[in-house]
Amino acid sequence: LRNPGEGDCDGQNTIFAMLCRLAGVPTRLTFVFHGQNGHGPAEVFLPKIGWVLMDTMGERDFQEYLESTAD
Q1: Residue 46 three-state SS
Q2: Which residues contact residue 71 at a Cβ distance below 8 angstroms, ignoring those fewer than 6 apart?
Q3: b/e map of 17-40 (b: 16 or more CB within 10 Å)?
Q4: What is the pLDDT of residues 11-58, one digit of tens each?
Q5: How far apart are alpha carbons 34 and 17 in whole angstroms?
Q6: How far apart are CA 20 and CA 12, in angstroms?
Q7: Distance (Å, rounded) from C-alpha 40 to C-alpha 47?
Q8: What is the pTM of this model?
Q9: Rounded distance between C-alpha atoms, residue 40 and residue 49, angstroms
Q10: How far is CA 26 from CA 19, 33, 55, 64, in A?
Q11: What local confidence, expressed as pLDDT, does residue 22 receive?
Q12: Does residue 42 contact residue 17 with C-beta atoms inside 8 Å?
């Protein structure tokens, strides 16, 4: 949290999930694979909608992450 742009998806999404839960929003962490690379976004439960993916890294950051972890 102190250094924007640093950290990984697990840490960022875990903090997001904790803050959501403290605010009373049902939240869960997920884990998905993109090829051989893993990613851990969070999901929040919204009434009348259901579970919604909330990725704190954003699509561009996730693509950069995938490229940085490529073999």
Answers
A1: strand
A2: 36
A3: beebeeeeeebeeeeeeeeeeebb
A4: 788 888 999 999 999 999 887 776 777 777 788 898 998 988 887 766
A5: 22
A6: 12
A7: 23
A8: 0.64
A9: 21
A10: 10, 23, 15, 29
A11: 96
A12: yes
